[in-house]
Design brief:
Largest sheet: 5 strands, antiparallel
Structural class: alpha+beta
Radius of gyration: 33 Å
Number of helices: 2
Order of helices and strands: HHEEEEE
Length: 157
């Protein structure tokens, strides 16, 4: 019996040596990160942001083919401009939808939301008929203010 125990113990020892030591690997505990400290994920763009992004991209693409506006309009501003209107429809000469005025030299884009307004007619908001949707710099197709935290954005009105 003692011989068989010794043999059995030797076999177990050989198997353990062959397998190698498998000590448990220590893991550092992970503390939960409060939501206020974590980086905020960017929100999905709204339909208005997508429309503005598409309108700006199309306007900038087409603007290069137009002559500088001072060739046909005096005392407005310097540099080429293009009135490009997309995301809307015209019924009996009345346009409804988004209109974008792009000034490529300065990077300024004025986007208007037209309601029952004439696209090329006299208007009340910066010579555009309808409600002014946004005026200012655009970054990646959306107003630059959207990149600011909510409490730092300019207040409307």
């Amino acid at each position: 019996m003692p011989y068989s125990r010794t043999t059995l113990a030797s076999l177990v020892a050989i198997m353990c040596v062959a397998c190698g030591p498998r000590a448990p690997t220590p893991q550092d505990p992970v503390a939960p990160v409060p939501e206020s400290d974590s980086a905020a994920l960017p929100e999905a763009p709204t339909p208005d942001q997508l429309a503005a992004r598409a309108a700006e991209a199309r306007a900038l693409e087409v603007a290069a083919a137009y002559p500088p506006i001072e060739q046909y309009a005096d005392d407005i501003y310097e540099g080429p401009a293009l009135m490009a209107s997309y995301q809307g429809k015209t019924n009996d000469g009345v346009y409804e939808g988004y209109g974008v005025l792009t000034l490529p030299d300065s990077g300024v884009v004025m986007a208007g939301l037209f309601a029952r307004g004439f696209l090329n007619g006299p208007g009340t908001a910066r010579d555009m008929q309808g409600e002014l949707f946004h005026e200012g710099m655009y970054l990646d197709g959306v107003p630059a203010e959207y990149s600011l935290p909510l409490d730092q954005r300019p207040k409307k009105g």
